[in-house]
Every structure is written in C-alpha cells, then in structure tokens.
C-alpha cells in the first residue's frame, strides 16, 4: 500500500514538474 502511494505521488509530482516546465518554456519563447 505504501509503495502504491509513493508511486502515485511520484507520478503526480513529475506531471506537475513537466507542466511547469512547459508553461515556463512557452512564456520564455513568447
């Protein structure tokens, strides 16, 4: 169960990080 939670949070944080990078890149290229 704990492992599942860790995987979930890791994936969520990675998704957020990717979104953040995409947004910042988009703003910089403007």
Descriptive account of the structure:
This protein is mainly alpha-helical and 30 residues long. The chain has one domain. It has 1 helix and no strands. It has one helix at residues 2-29. The radius of gyration is 13 Å and the shape is rod-shaped. The N and C termini lie far apart (44 Å).
Helix content: over 70%
Q: How would a crystallographer describe the biggest sheet?
A: none
Beta content:
under 5%
Number of domains in the coordinates? Answer: 1
Separation of the first and last Cα atoms:
44 Å
Q: Overall pLDDT, averaged?
A: 93
Which class of secondary structure composition applies to the elements? mainly alpha
Rg over CA atoms, rounded to whole Å, is 13 Å
Following the backbone from N to C, one meets helices and strands in this order, namely H
The low-confidence runs, each spanning 5 or more residues with pLDDT under 50, are none
Summarize the model shown.
The protein has 30 residues and is mainly α.
Main features:
0% strand; rod-shaped; mainly alpha; mitochondrion; ribosomal protein; 30 residues; 93% helix; ribonucleoprotein; 1 helix
Helix/strand layout:
Elements lengths: L1 H28 L1
């Amino acid at each position: 169960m704990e492992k599942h939670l860790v995987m979930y949070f890791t994936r969520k944080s990675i998704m957020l990080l990717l979104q953040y990078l995409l947004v910042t890149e988009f703003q910089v290229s403007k």
